[in-house]
Amino acid sequence: MNAMNLLIGLMPMIGWGLFPILTGKFGGKPVNQILGATYGTLIFAVIVALVRQTPMLGGKQFLYTFLSGACWSLGQILVFYAFSEMGVSRTMPISTGFQLVGASLWSVFVLGEWAKGSAKVIGFSAIILIIFGVWLTTFSEKKLPKADGGMNAVKGVILVAFAEVGYLGYSAFPQAFKSMDGFEAFLPQALGMAVVATIFAFATKQNRASKPFKTKSSYTNIISGLFFAFAALTYLISARPSVNGLATGFILSQMNVIIATLGGIYILHERKTKKEMVFILSGLVLVVIAGSVTTLL
Asked: Quick one: pLDDT at residue 1?
C-alpha cells in the first residue's frame, strides 16, 4: 500500500469519528439526527457533483447506489436509538465489531479479496484482535442506575445488531459495479439516504408530539451530515479495488472508533471509572495495531 492510498483510507476515520460526537452535541431525537445527517450529506453530494460535473448514473447503477444509501439510513436510525440506550462511547465499539465481521466476510468470500492463504490467516487474525479490542472498550466496572446514566445495554446491542444489516448493504451494493468510481456513486447514494430519512420523518410526524421538520436540531445536524458526507465520499474512493479494496478500506475507516469513543467520553461527558478507562485505552490500542496489520496485505 502506498502512502497516498493509506491517506485516502484514513480520511473516513476523521469524518465518521466526529459524526456521532456532533450529533450528540446538537442533540434531538433520532428522527432529527437522521434528517440533518442525510440532508447535509445530500447538500455536500450535490455540490461535489456540480463542481466535478459528474454525470448522473442510470439503470442498475443508479438503483444499486440508491439502495446503498437507503440501507445506510435504515441502519443509522437504529444506531441513533442505540446511542440513547448506551451512549456513543459504548455503541460505537460494538457497532465497529459487527461491521468488521460482516464487511470482511463479504469482501473475502464474495469479492475474493485476501486471495492468498497467508493473507486470510493474517487478515482474520487481525479481525479477531480488533473484536477483542472492541470488547475491552465495552467493559463496565459497575452497573449505573438509569437516572445516573446507566443504559439498557441489551436493547442497545440488539439495535446495533439489526443496524449492521443496513450497513452491510451500504458497503456491498456499490461493489456490484467495479468500473464505477466513488464520485459517480456519491449523489445517488445520498439521495437514497435522504429519501428514507424523509419517509421516516413523515411516519414519525403522525405522533403529535413529534415535529421533525419544525425542530431546530433537524437543521443544526446538517453540519454533522457534512462531516459524514466527507467520510462517505472518501470511503467510496478508498474501497475501490484499485485503491485499498473493500476489506482493507473498510477496516481503515473503522479506526473512527478511536475518535468516537474518546469523544463520547471527553466531549459528551459519558462518565468512566479509572479501571474502565484502562480497558478502553487498551482496547483502542489493539484496534489500531490490528487495523495497521491489514494495510500490509
From this structure: 63
